[in-house]
Amino acid sequence: MPSTADAEVLKPTVAEPIIKVTDIHKVYPNGVHALKNVSQEVQEGEVVVVIGPSGSGKSTFLRTINQLETINAGEIVVDGISLTTPGDVNKLREEVGMVFQSFNLFPHLSVLDNICLAPMKVRGLSRSDAEDRAVELLAKVGLSEKARSYPPQLSGGQQQRVAIARALAMQPRIMLFDEPTSALDPEMVGEVLDVMKQLAKSGMTMVVVTHEMGFAREVADRVLFMESGELLEDSCPDSFFDRPESERLQNFLSQVI
Amino acid sequence: MGRPLQMEKQPSQVLWNLVFAVLLLVIGLGIFKSSQSIDYTWRWERIPQYIVYQAENELRAEYDGTITANDAGQLILTNDFDADEQAVIEGFSDIQVNEGDLIFEGDLLAVSYEWQPGPIANGLAMTIKLSLVAIVFAILLGVISGLARISPNPALRHLSVLYIELIRGTPLLVQIFIVYFFIGTVLNLDRFTAAVAALSIFTGAYIAEIIRAGIESINKGQMEAGRSLGMGRGQTMRYIILPQAFKQVLPPLAGQFINLIKDSSLVSVISLTDLTKAGRETVSSTFSPFEVWFTVALLYLVLTGLLSYVVRRMELKYAVNR
Predict the structure, then answer these.
(1) What is the pTM for the complete model shown?
(2) Do B141 and B265 belong together in one domain?
């Protein structure tokens, strides 16, 4: 039996996964069984891409991680906080940023205020501190000159980059991307993916639901395949795309590539 | 250049505007003719004095005396029997005496004229005051019960539905009677408070539904985005949903305020002298019902028109960023 001193030494090498999902089920009120017995672990700094046909439950899976969807069975532990025990869900969401398919920027606020709002109201930052952070993030996503614009004045790609900056302004430990490029015109997909690649390089823990196979192959540490609520494949990009094990993934890949 | 080219034949602007003018003329003529046929004498000249009139303020001598002038040119009335008792005649526009005049007690010394609001103007002021106070409380009540209506808490939700259904299902006139005669008696409310209470409770129920619809018209993604950033439900409501819903609800809200101004005419049943009650009183002293009711209608129209104008300006102001 190891002493407590030994346990402390072991800690850095055997790290707890930052997201641990165990046997979760989700049944919508209309009877659709969206998630069936899904288990998954994501380590800190890992980039995990989830792929699958529409209606496969991949977005639902992503949304359970910050409890935009509740689960019917199983357990989710994020950053040491169990989502099945009642508690402060806002505390958890402060650490989990999310980027939506439809951007969901606040149309009545300027780009700068979109980014500053949550850090000021939730983290208690002063306006000047929040603006400094926002300006820095806008520079990172290449939109410094748009700080005073309003979301409806921006292109889709620009809006999505602002949405990423808005999520990052909370300095989350995990970023969730729910089909971030699906609502974009083709010529704008690249600019958003570039920002995401840059973020992945900086060591951010990311879970990305997407149809961009190129992005998955290039950036992901692991790729997951989901179909009809089940997690069918979990492997590194090379074996995922070149040596797919399940037959359904082979079919899926032959249709999309 | 000029008119846009289009295939479909458009109605002639000049012709149909002319038709509209002719129709107005015919209607006006019809009203004039029909009033002639019932042998009604129009006396519009009687009406203005019920809106504003010049009140005479008379100064009469309180004792026998003599008028003298002081250095400043003011006239002074000095008591003939007691030289210490003096009164300066000042502040009057029309002085009726001159220096050296002998004055007896009760004589008219000076008159001033002052514009005073007549009963119709007083009624109008009451209607404005009543509507403004009721609008403030109606908004408060409406926002609170509108938010309660969509609350996840069943007690709040059911309470709000009960309130809205009760109020929308009964006539305002009956509500005014209940508030004044029942609640007013129990809580010892005066007429004005009772009227404000009845009007704001009534309007609040409609505003609640407008607010609810406004909030529900905002994309669900906005709430999710706010929540995903760690903001609470209340914070997201306050900073994200409500500011956007506000713009959506302005037009229906304006309609509701206009209704409130018009509905305020019903409070005359509890003897509150608003514009309508003032109109009734004026009719009974002038015997000119047509003129009075047309005047009253015009004043309501001015009030509601002004309100529409203000709201339209607000809509434009908040539409800038879209």
Answers:
(1) 0.77
(2) yes
> For residue B27, is it within any domain?
no
Question: Residue B186's domain is classified under what CATH number?
Answer: 1.10.3720.10
Asked if A93's CB is within 8 angstroms of B228's CB, the reply is: yes
ipTM over 0.90: no
Query: A105, B228: Cβ pair inside 8 Å?
Result: no
Alpha helices in chain B (DSSP H): 13-37, 48-51, 119-149, 154-168, 172-177, 184-187, 191-216, 220-228, 233-236, 242-263, 275-286, 289-318
Residues of chain A with pLDDT below 50 are: 1-13
Output the pLDDT for position B140: 95
Number of domains chain B is built from = 2
Give per-residue pLDDT as tens, A22-40.
999 999 999 889 999 999 9
The enclosing domain of B84 has a CATH number of 2.40.50.100
pLDDT of A14: 55
Q: Which residues of A touch B231 (CB under 8 A)?
A: 90, 117-118, 121-122
Residues of A within 8 A of B247 (CB-CB) are 108
Residues B264 and B145 in one domain: yes
How do beta strands B75-79 and B86-89 pair? antiparallel
pLDDT of residue B149: 94
Beta bridge partners of A73: A25
Provide the b/e sequence for B223-237 (b: ≥16 CB within 10 Å): bbbbbbbbbbeebbb
Taking alpha carbons only, the member of B115, B98, B116 closest to residue B107 is B98
Last residue of a domain, one of B81, B116, B151: B116
Contact assignment for A150 to B232 by CB distance below 8 Å = no
Contact state of A68 with B240 under an 8 Å Cβ cutoff: no
Please name the residue of chain A whose CA is at the shortest distance from the CA of residue B242. A108
Of A94, A121, A170, the CB nearest to B235: A121
The verdict on B238 and B204 lying in the same domain is yes
Residues B139 and B112 in one domain: no
Residues of B with CB under 8 A from a CB of A: 219, 221-222, 224-232, 235, 239-240, 243-244, 247, 321-322
Residues sharing a CB contact under 8 Å with residue A234, sequence separation 6 or more, in sequence order: A40, A222, A223, A224, A225
Does any domain span residue B109? yes
Per-run averaged pLDDT (10 residues), chain B, 322 residues: 70 92 95 82 84 84 83 81 80 80 83 87 94 95 94 94 95 94 90 94 96 93 94 93 90 92 92 91 88 93 93 80 48
CA distance B149 to chain A (A): 22
Measured in angstroms, the CA of B17 and the nearest CA of chain A are apart by 39
Which pLDDT score, from 0 to 100, does residue B169 have? 95
Q: Final residue of a domain: which of B270, B293, B311?
A: B270
Distance from CA of B301 to the nearest CA of A (A): 34
For residue B104, what are the domain limits? 54-116
Nearest CA in chain B to A115: B229
